[in-house]
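Why does residue order matter? Because the sequence determines the fold. Keep that principle in mind as you read this record.
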Amino acid sequence: MKTALSVALLAVLLAACATGAASTPTPPAAIPATLQLQWITQAQFAGYYVALDKGWYAEEGIDLTIRPGGPDITPADEVASGRAEFGTGLLADLIAQIQQGKPLISVAQIQQSNGLILIAKASSGIQTPQDFRGKRVGVWLGSWEAQFNALAAKEGLSPDEFTLVPQGFSMDAFLNDDLDVASAMIYNEYHTVLESGYRPDEINIIDYADYGLNFPGDLLMTHTRLVEENPRLVEGMVRASLRGWKYALENPEEAVDIVLKYDTAGLLEREHQLTMMDEIRRLVESGLHPPGYTNRDEVRSVINTLASYEVILTPVDPDAVFTNQFWEAARSEVEAP
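Structure:
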């Protein structure tokens, strides 16, 4: 009898265990998503690489792939076409692309200022946009041209007065005198030129800010459909990215080392990336707003500027350009404790 009872009791316990195991919910599969960068892997995108390396996208249920870009890749096109769920880009260019009908929206304004400048060798005598006439001017086309177009219009320069040259990755064309004026980021190409042997006094900087065109810089964009159909994915992407940016700004050397881990081509130099990280910090923290927050008045100002110089043909509703709803949901990740 005791044996029979023992067997019966064991059967009940095994059944209970099986029932309990069967009722344990299976974690949902991570959602695959791609972030298309507008340039190669570098400290400009440190926050995203930190969040990826720390597993913070995974914590949000996102299996993220970060895809490096370049001068021949336009993140807005990749996102609008569905080839990427998220992309990075400049606010002015995003506005121009939205005005052209692309279904895009900014979900986080990372850089409150941007580091885009134009440079010329002091020996060329080029000091202002008025000196561009008859010169070869390098511009990255696709994701960086709205600001230049506004500058040219503001200064009364018609396209036939200078030669616009599509600029590539390297600064060799500028260094070899194949370009008279080159586009540069204050955190990257400008320092590349200095590292090649030029002194700061041998390079003239034409700063967009001096001409009233200091627009907010890099942002995180997505497809408007994704905001409507999967806001949870967008919120998780923004929250993890802001965690990454906060950590990167507070731990710049570690952030650079993480970026270097993802430099599969082995092109990056640590000292250059540390310099870049310091400049990026200035751009992210340059305004009155925390990373990720978009100021509506600033967006409207950029729209009005682009419209006044006919970079966009018709004004765009600021509310069609950005949303702060995901920043609001994730703001604890960037606010001081």
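The CA atoms of residues 125 and 131 lie 8 Å apart.
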